[in-house]
Amino acid sequence: MLVTTSIASGIIMDFPHLFRTAIPLGFLIGPTAFLYIQNITYPEKKISAFSWLYFLPAGLAFLDLLPFYLSSAVSKQEAYLAYLSDSSFRVFSVTEGILPANGIFWIMLILGIGYVFAQGRLLYLRAKENTNAKGLKIDDRQLIWLTALIVFQLIGALTLAWTLSSVEKDINVFYTYTTTYTLGFVFLSSVLYRCPEILYGQAVVEAVLPKETKKNSYVPISDEQIEEYAQQVKAYMQTHQPYLNPELSLNTLAQELAISRNHLSIVLNNGMGVKFNDLINQHRLLHLAHQFETINYPQLTIEGIASEVGFKSRTTFMHSVKKMTGLTPSKFIESLREKKPLEISIPN
After folding, report:
1. Contacts of 315 (CB under 8 A, 6+ apart)
2. pLDDT tens digits for 216-230?
3. Model-level pTM greater than 0.85?
């Protein structure tokens, strides 16, 4: 964006070494966004050893223009002036490499549209599934953010297509392209401003009961039994620390307590007023706070700390910290190191 603006305004003459530097970076937008959305929608799917191939076009574009990048400032200024004076050139045409004019941008456009559809497919499949095998779902705010990110790339690709199809070079096209991207960045920034927790990982991920269980969630159980089971749950949490098991689920806990799954769900929701995931994650954070100095936690990374107390992913740990303490993970760890009093509670 900075380079495009400087070209349109002529400021590039004062900073000639910026000329053409944005081209390889343009090839990074699609694969970076794709891997990001893949990590959010399917966090259990590890990045492939061949994922570096996504970034190969950016490397090839850089090598294609490397001789030009190594040329003098005067040569780059002359190239810029030649670009402006030759009316046969189209907007964004590049003749400094081995590809024909506009060729590198058509490749960028085709790859960009391909990545937009690939990202949209990931999001569509994830939204269609609603819940995966472990009962996880994406929060609406996270869905809005990812959709906005994909739409932003699609608008950018369509603007580039329109620019490349222009018969005559017109500097106003630069302004249109720059304005489109600027407004897009403002829009994405506004989404992040309204949902700042997105910056700390997956917005809201929570366990939900299967649909058939929700329809018949009432199972005959007395208030006395609910209270008795609630005390049993609290005692079991204190003595056996099941929350340290990253594979712990509602079914697993029900089996360990010898309580039916439906009864345990009623005890948690009605008797204790908490959701299963919130209860488990709260105990994990409380365990971390109480044992922080005794088990060498200060020497571990955030990922290491999260794993030690039972969190399966860094994003779930980061969201839980933000949700239950109001602090960012780094501030939370800093407070533990400084032994500051902390309140770790489940918000209503």
Report:
1. 40, 43, 201, 202, 205
2. 444 578 888 899 999
3. no
Q: How far apart are CA 81 and CA 9, in angstroms?
A: 13
Domain carrying residue 118: 2-200
As a whole number of angstroms, the longest Cα–Cα distance in the chain is: 87
**Does any domain span residue 178?**
yes
State how far the Cα of 287 lies from the Cα of 306, in Å rounded to an integer: 11
Grade residue 243 by pLDDT with cuts at 50, 70 and 90: very high
Count of residues in the chain: 348
Indicate if 94 and 70 belong to the same structural domain: yes
> Among 200, 220, 240, which residue terminates a domain?
200
d(CA 160, CA 138): 32
Q: What angle do CA 338, 344, 347 make, to 5 degrees?
A: 145
Q: What is the DSSP letter of 199?
A: G
Instruction: From 144, 172, 270, 257, select the one nearest 218 (Cα to Cα).
Output: 270
Helix (H, G, I), strand (E, B) or coil at 339: coil
Q: Are 90 and 101 in contact (CB under 8 A)?
A: yes
Please say whether the beta carbons of 297 and 311 come within 8 A.
Answer: no
Residue recorded with tokens 């800093």: 334
Same domain, 80 and 171: yes
d(CA 329, CA 308): 15
Could you report the per-residue pLDDT of 252-279, keeping only the tens digit for each? 999 998 888 888 989 998 889 899 999 9
Does residue 206 sit within a domain? Answer: no
